[in-house]
Structures are given as structure tokens and as C-alpha cells.
Write a structure and sequence with these properties.
The chain is mainly alpha-helical. The chain contains three helices and two strands.
Length: 79
């Protein structure tokens, strides 16, 4: 949860690997919808919600995790 960004080219869990073709516009729409839903739920929804990898997190820790994860992938694809 620290300030350092994720390292480039770190391995992802096998269940998250995308091995088929995807429609970019559809995937972009899904991402925007997920971001909007997260915003609508608000910080209180995420307070002490459990992460599969890190256990219970505060809403601030979730915020950092969401940002770092999305930023990692946007930079990965030079977006």
C-alpha cells in the first residue's frame, strides 16, 4: 500500500490471464462502468472490506490499491 508504483512485468495470477481476443470498445465500456459503480458505492462501502490478497483494508487502502492497479495497466499499454 506504499507510495511506490507496481513493478513492470510482474507475473499475474494464472486465473487473470487473458488468452482470447477481446473487443476493445466493449472492454473500455466495462471498465468505465466498473469505475462508475465503485464511485457510486462510495468509500464507506469499502471500509474494512476484505481483499483476497491483503485481508481487510480501509477505504483509503482500497483507494490506493485501485489507483495503483489501474495505473499499472494503463502504463503497461501506454495509455
Amino acid at each position: 500500500m506504499g507510495p511506490k508504483p507496481y513493478k513492470r512485468n510482474i507475473r499475474t495470477a494464472p486465473e487473470f490471464l487473458i488468452t482470447d481476443e477481446r473487443d476493445f470498445e466493449l472492454e473500455k465500456q466495462k471498465l468505465v462502468a466498473h469505475l462508475q459503480k465503485t464511485q457510486q458505492l462510495g468509500a464507506a462501502h469499502f471500509q474494512n472490506k476484505e481483499s483476497h490478497a491483503f485481508g481487510p483494508l480501509t477505504s483509503q487502502e482500497w483507494n490506493v490499491l485501485f489507483y495503483k492497479h489501474l495505473d499499472h495497466h494503463l502504463q503497461q499499454f501506454n495509455v
